[in-house]
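Quick bug: GHMP kinase N-terminal domain-containing protein output formatted oddly.
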Amino acid sequence: MAERVEVVVPVRVDLAGGWTDVQPYSGDFGGEVVNFAINRYIRSIMEKDADGRIRVEYSSDMPTGSGLGTSGAMNVGLIATIAGGDKSPEDIAELAFQFEALLENRGGRQDQWAAAHGGFNHLLFLGDEVEEMPFEPMRSARNWLRKHFVIAYTGIEHTSGDMHSGVWERYDQGDESVIGGLHLIRGAARTMAEGLQRDRRELVVHALNEVCKGVDMLDPAIHDPFRGVIDPLLEAGSAVAWKALGAGGGGSVGLLCSPTGVSTAVSAVEEAGWEVIEWDYDNQGMKVS
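Here's what came back:
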């Protein structure tokens, strides 16, 4: 009889700290990330016939290059379908990361951990080790974020590896702007965690603004494709903070809107040809059947 395994894996939204989960920064200084999984999924199906031949098929709610960690989620699904068994979510996440490393994809571990675990994550990256911090945002903070955080897929193509290579080349050369930007981004993760756990919304806004400052220090080109749409929303007060999701330079953005600014922001991004992504939290993570 044929064997069939289906795995459903969520993608993630990185709120603060992305970039600092990548070596060599995580080994030199330690990285820190806050993210959460959403109900947009990668589905992986493996079928093994009576002769042992394996076929794997994928489907995705989001295109690759969306900035939502689709590649990491896809590889978590692949590892879970083929070698899942009794392995823990952490083991599967690490195997998925190592698989990407074999393909010479330079990135961090946050995508794989978010895909495997789901929910909100506050993660420390100490070299090649991942430590999961106790983290439970207040329900009021979760509801506020759900209501006011607009995710928009721009359709602008980008390759995260290309963004990473330029930044890390400058890091290896000791570029003070890159190192300072990464420090700023890492600090924003701790501020973000505190803001969500205490429902201190001004801290969430501050954390997002700090991330933007830090990313501009890495490379202003990361934000350039988005400024024409987002800057007017910030100036009008419809959006109070924002960030590029993933490596930036294309893909998706997240806009934190004022109480009365959501409809204005949605209209502006749709007028620009961007797609507003309807979303909710995924609290289950990887599901195997």
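Actually, after a second look the formatting is fine. The chain has two domains: 3-135, 140-277. Closing.
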